[in-house]
């Protein structure tokens, strides 16, 4: 598809404008991470540091056991992503491609679970995890993911709903069982949205910090997000470590995103025909 | 047939999950004792950064000296309250907790009077008297004092030098402060003479009322006739006038960010500012709070202590630890972060001679005998919320409510 | 009518239990991790529970207080609904525009795609600090830049008139997730639909409204519902950036509930607050969902139409 030149100018103009909005605060973070404390706070604002303080990154990383945090974050992120992919693909498929009794009411309940305010169910959930002996382990963060999350199930269902019905019916007539239809026909079709779900889940779990805050106790169990938050005290923030760890922390999700782009580009029905 | 295969796959999947759950609960941690038979104590702190490193070192020392106890540090930073509230709600609070807001948490804390009695009178007397009041609620001592700060005026020496204004000295008045602020304020270079919070924490702000012989409430907790008294209104008017005159700015937070910009000449803050301001490259001095014309220079205390959870299963051991945490050695270790609370340490370390730290101690001596409203009013967190809103409406530039009226309404 | 033809098309071949097997993981998860705490919080809403001590039964007292004796309840509800009314459409439109932009076959588009997604990756703690800096009225970056071009910037986080806008600007920064969802869906639209339309002489705008939009209605529905939920429960940003101020102008309902629970230690009351919001959201979602049958097209209906033309 060719784009006329006058449109191109408009498009680049828009892209540039939005980039400013998205990028400027970000650039400020990068610059701040390379400054001294005095330079960060000085007014009128100083744009560039006199001498880039690369050691800010090293200092920040070494000030807490971030190696351990990284390991925990990776475990939690990988496990939950795995869990979400398995269970959400099954559940969403069930909701999208079958008719069954109580389907509507069950689906409403599923949606409703997205609306439950976190504040008030947290304490009973804490009690439950405590009874199970899961407090101060990574289990409360990982295990629930293996039972699917409404957000991703709903999302995947929306994608699956727009796949033509003829697909599985043809397969059924050919004698394929439901299990085969799911694995052989639908899993390949779902590649793009499943990658999307993986990207979204990695993102939210990587940055989640209320969960770890409530369910973890000693430092050896902490995740990166919790380590980052630990730079923020009641009276003062340690601005340089916060900025540098923030920058380090965004690298893995961004790299994953870059890789995932390729698959997302294919879209969902790209593989139907 | 095929369906059976499908089903079995499914049940395998579910079974794995349940197994996973089952295993973990059987191998679940035992919060009482660690594997080697030691008593395990959880200790929660709100401190961050270097403070935590030091605390860990001190804990290691304690653990080495006590064969039967193992203390584990949990650092929660600014979300400390959320975390321990959740813990208390689920009856799984840490055994030992840093504490300052005693009225709020009193029901979940172990009263320590009987423990302290056993240590003898000298033990208790070595702490500054004023601190015990702040570590109690309903007449019961609920924590051992660990640190405290009074509030003082921080001033930026460079800005004073530039404007050719003399550094403030103890015994100065609010009028002196305003004069200085007037000279220091410079619209062109964006220098503000004085900064105070546009939505001050009512707990902190009460000290200004004390300085002018007023307070939020009387001893029965009545706001009326106190919060809206003539003296009280005067205080608010004074602050509001500084803002209207343009010699003071109101800040969004405590004011430390603004102070760090190097464009604010004076602001009131606790000892929390000592290190961060130095790191931000501000050459500052500190001086006692100014006094009111017919009043005094009084500061509120922001104190911290360590408390034992009421639900702890090892209170004796926990007390052993908090005693260690507030002993002379610990006070000395913490000296870079926290003002010592023991008279003997202040004496031996000659803090009375320290140019900066002595200011906090002389403020402490001047501030004895006041009880903050938070210890008197039953429902302080609600009342505080309302007061906060009223104060904000007095100082917010878009409203600038008349203090007299605003306070009168608030008192009713 | 549709479901009838579906049945004729092969549902009878499927064992009745099979669908339940597919959704079984979620059902178990719901029973184990969600239902219990949910019921617990409902029960708690009839108790007075100051967290540090034991709960006492008070009947419907919490609900009564909420409706008759707590002006902040109405204020917070109003602010939150207003915020959602502005934020949800705005966010959707921006996300859609961005998603369209990054599907254009332009040079360097991959870079822009990453730039737009970047902010969504930044953790909430850092976001609030960054915006706090930018919007500080005395010594903030934004007002400094404005002052360079001779504009006196507003007091973003001090003036109640501007504070809500500030929150909108700051939260729209994380629109990348929604953009990505739209993008994935748009990418799935078969190219031949556009080609056919182009042959028929449809311009870019016609193509957008008659192909792109109808094809992605399922994800639009998803994004509408999830962003309504997110907007009505918005907490992190106001908690960290404004604390509900100035003058309680950003005291959103989420913050109101959070403070009742964790600041005032009234967990029973907070549960009552939370349940009310739960019901409000549920009703809203149901309404949106009911309406969706008129504007959401599933099952390739549109795509088929396109193919016929071909």
- What coarse outline of chain C follows from CA principal-axis ratios? flat
Domains of chain C (count): 1
The CATH topology annotation of the largest domain in chain B reads as D-Maltodextrin-Binding Protein, domain 2
For this structure, the quaternary state is heterotrimer
As laid out across the biggest beta sheet of chain B, the strand order is 2-1-3-12-6
Q: How many individual domains of chain B?
A: 2
CATH architecture of the largest domain in chain B: 3-Layer(aba) Sandwich
Q: What structural class do you assign from the helix and strand content of chain C?
A: mainly alpha
Number of strands of chain C: 2
Radius of gyration of chain B: 25 Å
User: Which range best describes the helical content of chain B: under 10%, 10-25%, 25-40%, 40-55%, 55-70% or over 70%?
Assistant: 40-55%
Radius of gyration of chain C: 24 Å
Low-confidence stretches of chain B: 21-31
Q: What's the average pLDDT of chain B? A: 89
CATH homologous superfamily caption of the largest domain in chain B: Periplasmic binding protein-like II
Derived from helix and strand composition plus strand pairing, the structural class of chain B reads alpha/beta
Instruction: Report the sheet-strand fraction of chain B.
Output: 5-15%
CATH superfamily of chain C: MetI-like
Largest sheet: number of strands, sense, barrel closure of chain B: 5 strands, mixed
Main pleated-sheet profile of chain C: 2 strands, antiparallel
Counting DSSP E segments of at least 2 residues, the number of strands of chain B comes to 12
Domain ABC transmembrane type-1 (chain A): 70-260
Protein name (chain A): Sugar ABC transporter permease
InterPro entries (chain A): MetI-like, MetI-like_sf
Transmembrane segments (chain A): 9-34, 74-93, 105-126, 141-160, 181-206, 239-260
């Amino acid at each position: 598809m060719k784009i006329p030149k006058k449109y191109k100018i408009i498009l680049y103009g828009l892209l540039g404008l939005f980039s400013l909005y998205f990028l400027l605060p970000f650039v400020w973070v990068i610059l701040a991470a390379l400054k001294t404390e005095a330079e960060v706070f000085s007014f009128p604002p100083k744009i560039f540091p006199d001498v880039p303080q690369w050691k800010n990154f090293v200092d920040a990383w070494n000030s807490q056991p971030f190696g351990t945090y990284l390991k925990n974050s990776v475990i939690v992120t990988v496990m939950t992503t795995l869990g979400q992919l398995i269970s959400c693909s099954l559940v969403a498929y069930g909701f999208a491609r079958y008719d069954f009794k109580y389907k509507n009411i069950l689906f409403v309940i599923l949606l409703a679970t997205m609306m439950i305010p976190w504040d008030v169910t947290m304490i009973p959930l804490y009690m439950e995890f405590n009874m199970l002996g899961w407090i101060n382990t990574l289990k409360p963060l990982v295990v629930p993911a293996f039972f699917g999350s409404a957000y991703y199930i709903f999302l995947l269902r929306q994608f699956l709903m727009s796949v033509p019905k003829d697909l599985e019916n043809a397969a059924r007539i050919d004698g394929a069982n439901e299990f085969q239809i799911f694995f052989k026909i639908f899993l390949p079709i779902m590649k793009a949205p499943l990658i999307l779900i993986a990207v979204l889940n990695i993102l939210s779990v990587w940055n989640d910090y209320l969960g770890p805050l409530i369910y973890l106790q000693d430092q050896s169990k902490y995740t990166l997000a919790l380590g980052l938050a630990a730079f923020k005290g009641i009276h003062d923030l340690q601005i340089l470590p916060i900025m540098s760890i923030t920058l380090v922390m965004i690298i893995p999700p961004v790299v994953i995103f870059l890789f995932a782009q390729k698959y997302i580009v294919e879209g969902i029905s790209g593989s139907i025909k | 047939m095929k369906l059976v295969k499908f089903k079995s796959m499914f049940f395998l999947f579910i079974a794995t999950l349940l197994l996973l759950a089952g295993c973990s609960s059987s191998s679940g941690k035992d919060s009482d004792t660690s594997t080697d038979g030691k008593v395990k104590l959880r200790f929660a702190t709100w401190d961050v950064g270097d403070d935590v490193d030091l605390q860990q070192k001190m804990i290691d020392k304690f653990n080495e000296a006590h064969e039967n106890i193992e203390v584990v540090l949990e650092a929660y930073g600014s979300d400390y309250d959320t975390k321990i509230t959740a813990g208390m709600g689920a009856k799984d609070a840490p055994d030992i907790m840093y504490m300052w807001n005693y009225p709020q948490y009193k029901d979940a804390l172990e009263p320590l009077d009987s423990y302290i009695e056993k240590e003898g009178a000298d033990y208790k007397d070595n702490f500054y008297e004023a601190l015990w009041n702040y570590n109690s609620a309903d007449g019961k001592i609920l924590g051992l004092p660990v640190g405290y700060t009074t509030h003082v005026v921080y001033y930026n020496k460079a800005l004073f030098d530039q404007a050719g204004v003399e550094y403030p000295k103890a015994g100065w008045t609010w009028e002196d402060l305003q004069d200085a602020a007037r000279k220091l304020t410079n619209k062109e270079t964006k220098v503000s003479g004085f900064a105070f919070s546009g939505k001050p924490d009512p707990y902190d702000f009460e000290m200004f009322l004390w300085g002018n012989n007023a307070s939020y409430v009387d001893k029965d907790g009545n706001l009326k006739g106190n919060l809206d008294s003539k003296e009280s209104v005067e205080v608010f008017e004074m602050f509001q006038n500084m803002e209207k005159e343009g010699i003071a700015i109101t800040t969004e937070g405590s004011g430390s960010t603004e102070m760090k910009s190097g464009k604010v000449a004076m602001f009131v803050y606790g000892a929390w500012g000592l290190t961060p301001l130095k790191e931000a490259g501000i050459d500052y001095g500190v001086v006692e709070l100014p006094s009111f014309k017919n009043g005094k220079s009084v500061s509120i205390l922001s104190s911290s202590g360590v408390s034992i959870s009421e639900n702890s299963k090892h209170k004796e051991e926990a007390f052993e630890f908090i005693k260690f945490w507030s002993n002379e050695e610990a006070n000395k270790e913490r000296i870079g972060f926290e003002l010592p609370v023991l008279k003997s340490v202040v004496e031996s370390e000659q803090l009375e001679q320290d140019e900066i730290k002595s200011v906090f101690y002389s403020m402490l001596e001047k501030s004895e005998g006041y009880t903050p409203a938070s210890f008197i009013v039953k429902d302080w967190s609600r009342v505080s919320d309302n007061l906060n809103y009223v104060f904000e409406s007095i100082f917010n530039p878009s409203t600038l409510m008349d203090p007299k009226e605003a306070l009168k309404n608030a008192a009713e | 009518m549709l479901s009838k033809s579906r049945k004729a098309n092969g549902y009878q071949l499927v064992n009745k239990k099979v669908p339940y097997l597919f959704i079984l993981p979620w059902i178990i998860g719901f029973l184990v991790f969600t239902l219990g705490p949910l019921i617990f919080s409902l029960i708690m809403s009839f108790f007075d529970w100051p967290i540090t001590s034991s709960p006492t039964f008070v009947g419907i007292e919490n609900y009564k207080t909420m409706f008759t004796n707590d002006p902040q309840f109405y204020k917070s509800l109003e602010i939150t609904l207003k915020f959602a009314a502005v934020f949800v459409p705005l966010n959707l439109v921006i996300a859609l525009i961005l998603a369209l932009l990054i599907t254009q076959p332009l040079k360097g588009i991959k870079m822009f795609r990453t730039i737009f997604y970047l902010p969504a990756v930044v953790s909430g703690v850092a976001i609030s600090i960054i915006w706090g800096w930018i919007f500080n009225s005395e010594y903030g970056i934004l007002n400094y830049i404005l002052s360079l071009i001779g504009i006196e910037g507003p007091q973003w986080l001090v003036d109640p008139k501007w504070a809500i806008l500030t929150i909108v600007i700051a939260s729209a920064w994380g629109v990348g997730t929604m953009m990505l969802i739209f993008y994935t869906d748009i990418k799935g639209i078969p190219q031949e639909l556009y080609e056919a339309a182009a042959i028929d002489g449809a311009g870019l705008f016609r193509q957008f409204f008659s192909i792109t939009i109808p094809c992605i209605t399922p994800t639009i529905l998803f994004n509408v519902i999830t962003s309504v939920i997110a907007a009505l429960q918005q907490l992190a940003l106001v908690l960290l950036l404004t604390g509900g101020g100035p003058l309680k102008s950003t005291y959103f309902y989420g913050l109101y509930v959070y403070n009742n629970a964790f600041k005032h230690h009234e967990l029973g009351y907070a549960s009552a607050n939370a349940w009310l919001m739960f019901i409000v959201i549920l009703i809203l979602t149901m309404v949106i969902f009911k309406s969706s049958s008129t504007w959401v097209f599933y099952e390739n209906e549109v795509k088929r139409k396109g193919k016929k033309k071909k």
